[in-house]
Specification:
By secondary structure, this protein is an alpha/beta fold. It has one domain: Transcription elongation factor, GreA/GreB, C-terminal domain (Chitinase A, domain 3, Roll), CATH 3.10.50. It has three helices and seven strands. Strands 5-4-3-7-6 form a five-stranded mixed sheet. Strands 1-2 form a two-stranded parallel ribbon. The relative contact order is 0.22.
Length: about 130
Amino acid sequence: MDRHTPERTLTELDHARLSRHIRDAVAPLQDLLESALLVPSRAVAPDVVTMYTQVRLRFPDGRCEKVVPCYPQDAEPAEGFVSALSPLGAGLLGLRAGDMARWCTPAGQEVSAEIVEVLFQPEASGDYLM
């Protein structure tokens, strides 16, 4: 598979919950909701970025950051919790460790970062309701 345009996977639960926010969603999230492969929470691979998955990103300048896509009410960007409705949050969901995440800043600047590793995924730890 071409790592530049990877297939995106969402759990059925994440899809249902995110779909409630579709009016407020950025275009990349709307596109993701329409095109993602849907799987049951118990069947999602442990390296797929789902809601509340902790990932380590490596930017082209070598800097690394821990980021967690979350629902808007839990967003704390300074702590690494980014709303799934934001360009970064939407850019991460459904990707896997090793994929390149791409998004645009509000100023229109294109940004990319490699998902170096999945540090924690709720479903892999048995939490299917998060």
